């Protein structure tokens, strides 16, 4: 890296790094460091009545320091929180050489450095449980300064709260912002609770392919890649449904998978192109059983993670106390629009959409039109967990026909906080009916619907061997974690959400400057021009020659670049040439 591209703080830290090495101290040691305690453990197990002081070995990141002559205090942050460390010169430097304290600790260490201390636990005169350091070891030198978030009188200053920076630099977000790590700890708790629930019922966790020759199991636009050895296109998984049902055909009574799915669609506050979905399939069950199974599961997860069956999301308090209300799709639309869509054909549904002010296009079939009506007028109304049931058959190509009405399917979606959380069926196991549904999806594809399903002939073949009556359910894990942690955007519950490419400053090369100015002499000055804010020839053309000459000569001296000072006339000639 060009030293001129560094900030003043970054330059100071690199100088400290070099000084440490000159003293024979390795800033990034390879040896194991025998940590045996953390901040939470120390506080939980401390007793003023203990007969002996507890020896500990702790390590973490320096978050603040108070240097007071021969003794200092350090606030050390580890994975469990923060703990104060008392550092006395004569304790960590028992011999004649005091450089470890006077030079290393006081001058060469910085906020953000990772340091280890060996010592004993005690309580200070002000009552704070602390570690009295006997030994200090530098474990990792930080070369970039952390944002220093200050809290005074309940107010936060210099907070690291820009969402784009937080998501791009999650590693910094986790270090400096309280509560962020807790979200992800709860995320793991959600997974653990759900996995335990399934395992207790005797169902088996499995893995299915991510690279697939046919993107099946959902109506979505896939990512496409190419397999060089086989010379065939492959698709990143949009759903694992069809593979899991193949396993039910193979004889498993219940299988589930936490799958990474990929959909080449938009990004917003509740959608990320890469997301986690859990799908479970259980033989000899139907969607009525699955509703009960699902609501009991969610009530348990909420209690396991939050200690209660209620969560607060924005202005809404949501209760996961089972049972949840059940409302049919047609009744929901009638309740919120006054329109009964029962028996309507495609033309009638188009008119309803027009009357309701819902935009549609020619590629949309009957199922998509109904989906648009529900999405626009009904979905956001269901804040408390509610099962929307009995979808029209055109909306559900993988679902069994309703036992009482062949125009409907045995399907439910669980709505929570105005969004779909779970989707479940009595699975279609009639291979002939399934094939006809796939054919209808291909007809929609020919009309321009790029989310229509492709015929999966191998899946049809599997059904022809016979699949028992089965119920399946899929749940968006990222949305579930949002609910259980009270977050309103999906980016808050993903460690590294997909982001647009980071904007970078456009810079002309040294060769481009030399060509435009017709002189090779400018090449050595380009890094200093960049430091002064002149990144392109066009920037140079708009510069004030006198000021620019002062700036770059000052930077030359400050950064000890060693260049022969350039005259005001020369800089003026550069500016004039750039403007031509």
Written overview of the protein:
- This protein is an alpha+beta fold and 580 residues long.
- The protein has 20 helices and 20 strands.
- The chain has an eight-stranded mixed sheet, sandwiched between helices. The chain has a five-stranded mixed β-barrel with strand order 1-2-3-5-4. Strands 9-11-10 form a three-stranded antiparallel sheet, with no helix packed on it.
- The model has no long low-confidence stretch (mean pLDDT 93).
Salient structural properties:
5-stranded mixed barrel, alpha+beta, 8-stranded mixed sheet, 36% helix, 580 residues, single chain
How is this structure best summarized?
The chain is α+β, with helices and mostly antiparallel strands and 580 residues long. The chain has helices at residues 8-22, 39-45, 89-92, 99-108, 163-168, 170-176, 180-200, 241-249, 287-306, 329-337, 346-356, 366-377, 431-446, 457-464, 477-485, 510-517, 526-531, 537-541, 545-558, 568-579; strands at residues 55-68, 71-78, 81-88, 114-123, 129-140, 150-152, 155-157, 204-205, 211-212, 224-227, 232-236, 254-262, 274-283, 310-313, 316-319, 326-328, 386-389, 411-416, 419-426, 470-476.
Outline the fold blueprint.
Blueprint: H1 8-22, H2 39-45, E1 55-68, E2 71-78, E3 81-88, H3 89-92, H4 99-108, E4 114-123, E5 129-140, E6 150-152, E7 155-157, H5 163-168, H6 170-176, H7 180-200, E8 204-205, E9 211-212, E10 224-227, E11 232-236, H8 241-249, E12 254-262, E13 274-283, H9 287-306, E14 310-313, E15 316-319, E16 326-328, H10 329-337, H11 346-356, H12 366-377, E17 386-389, E18 411-416, E19 419-426, H13 431-446, H14 457-464, E20 470-476, H15 477-485, H16 510-517, H17 526-531, H18 537-541, H19 545-558, H20 568-579
Parallel strand pairs: 3-5, 8-12, 16-17
Antiparallel strand pairs: 1-2, 1-4, 2-3, 4-5, 6-7, 9-11, 10-11, 12-13, 13-20, 14-15, 17-18, 18-19, 19-20
Helix pairs in contact: 7-9, 7-15, 11-12, 13-14, 19-20
